[in-house]
Amino acid sequence: MTEPEHPADLRVVGVSLDCADPVERALALGARLADPQPDRRWRVLLDPAGHPFCITTVVPPDVVATT
After folding, report:
1. How far is residue 28's CA from residue 22's CA, in Å, rounded to a whole number?
2. What is the largest CA-CA distance in the chain?
3. Rounded CA gap, 49 and 63, in Å?
């Protein structure tokens, strides 16, 4: 994976119960899968400008779920 010419100031991580639907939606909106994929618990994608972002099923321990 190569870094984009102008790195993003913000790293985005999306948490989902299932990675498949959000990944498919991101791909439909112009993202592409990064290569290699480091872990099966998350998917690393690149936005159209090449900025990496992740979609995962892993909820960070410091995040409290709210409804």
Report:
1. 10
2. 39
3. 29
Q: How far apart are CA 34 and CA 16, in angstroms?
A: 19
Number of H helices, E strands in the chain: 1, 4
Global confidence as pTM: 0.65
Tell me the C-alpha to C-alpha distance, in Å, between residue 67 and each of 15, 64: 15, 10
Q: How far apart are the two ends of the chain, measured CA to CA in Å?
A: 36
Paired tokens of 60: 């960070």
The model's pLDDT over 33-65, given as tens digits with 9 standing for 90+, comes to 999 998 888 889 999 989 888 888 777 677 655
Distance of CA 42 to the CA centre of its chain: 7
